[in-house]
Amino acid sequence: MQVADRCVVSIHYTLTNDAGEVLDSSQGGEALAYLHGQGSIIAGLESALTGKQAGDKLDVRVEPAQGYGERDERLIQQVPRRAFQGISEVQAGMRFQTQGANGPSSVVVTQVAGDMVTVDGNHPLAGQSLNFNVEIAEVREASAEEVEHGHVHGAGGHAH
Questions:
Q1: Which end of the chain has the lower number of beta carbons within 10 A, N or C?
Q2: End-to-end CA distance of the chain, in Å?
Q3: How is domain 73-120 classified at the CATH fold level?
Q4: DSSP-derived secondary structure for the chain
Q5: pLDDT for res 62
Q6: Domain ranges for the chain
């Protein structure tokens, strides 16, 4: 069976950056199972897997536009320290969930200087080209319930 919309695809992968550093990997663990065509994985990788089948191995380079996007300097902001109520010590590297006009988002503290805190709302991999080494472990038709819910159930997926 070929990878297509409404299929459950299980992959083993290793993700590296252009310096060859491993950023993420499923090696030694469970395969990643996702519902193809639902935007569950980045667009560039999903597109490259379309039409492939179980047993196929491929190297995929995903440019930022098809990955986590380009870095957007408008997502870097300075906010007053008082915006972090209930947090005794705000430090660089801390992550927070925020609620904005466009819904929830995640930010990381990049600098604390006096009463001002700099936060970055870019995805950590924004602006980076991503290099995937992928092996397709399994391709199967998604159940009606999986399609309705928009995600994989059972092994490697979501349990209700």
A1: C
A2: 27
A3: Thrombin, subunit H (2.40.10)
A4: -B--TTEEEEEEEEEE-TT--EEEE-TTSPPEEEETTTT-S-HHHHHHHTT-BTT-EEEEEE-GGGTT----GGGEEEEEGGGSTT-S---TT-EEEEEETTEEEEEEEEEEETTEEEEE-S-TTTT--EEEEEEEEEEEEPPHHHHHHTS-BSTTSB--
A5: 98
A6: 7-68+125-149, 73-120
Measuring CA to CA, which residue among 5, 11, 2, 8 is closest to residue 135?
11
Q: Which tens digits make up the pLDDT trace of 36-73?
A: 999 999 999 999 999 999 999 999 999 999 999 999 99
pLDDT tens for each residue of 35-45: 999 999 999 99
CA geometry: angle at 115 spanning 113 and 117, to 5°?
60
Residue 151 has pLDDT above 90, yes or no: no
| Of the candidates 132, 133, 155, 134, the residue with the CA atom closest to the CA atom of residue 8 | 155
Do the Cβ atoms of 158 and 38 come closer than 8 Å? no
